[in-house]
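User: Fold this; tokens only.

Assistant: Input:
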Amino acid sequence: MALKTSPKAILDAAQDAGLVSGVMPLADISPAFTAQSTDASEALENVQSKTRRKISLLAAAETLETLSDQPKNAELAEAVSQGIPLSLIEAGLKHEDGFSAFSDTLREEALSCTTSTSLHLTDQTDVETIKSLRQKGLNVLIGDLPFEPSDDAIAIDLSRFVTSDGLDARIIAEIIDAAKSLQANRLHVIPCGLSAAIMALGKPYETKSVVDICRTLNQPWLITPLSAQALIDFIPTTQGLMPFSQSALQNSDGHWALTTPIKLGLARTVPESLTALQKALEHP
């Protein structure tokens, strides 16, 4: 990617290429920083309430979709008997495109409604308690936090910067510096594509490999999953510490081809296997 000298031009080019996300508050870019609470019972009730609402909206969309645009009383009575609130039925009747379009609206609302809730605990909390809370759907943040939900953040797909020469730390630093120069407040950086980058570099998938990448880039990172809102315009190879599992993609002509991280990783570690595998895919 050819980068211009203007920080805005650099950032715009990176966003257009899908290398980085837009800049947005932590509370918007990641579900881990929404609705923070210090009370476990309150946080659990919060996430359960959000989950019930999401399920309710999806169920209502499923039922209302079966109604005609001018439903008979019997149809409406059946919908009410299935637990659909009268307010939703009335909204569907008033919708200019009918119940089918209104159902799509409900689905979109349900899918955009995050069920995530964060619980902020002291660093004295025992491991089993933390594990139990996470299994119940809570994002658990521990100890003194060096950030606020209102802080700005940007996500970057590190795997997109790996070439046959290695990880291009210079371009990554240039893009991050450009983003920081355009912000009045401090900017946190969320690394994505970590496992894909490790694969492309031919490194083992382990904690040391992640630490080595972070040290190479000399940049404090905030490793966290992204929100549905952030993923609208930015689709990273992987999120957080999730493993990279996409080994091949099917082309428009129906043939399969290895993904870039797999090709780069095999070229570094077992080049003879890469050649054989590519031939097998080209001539199945």
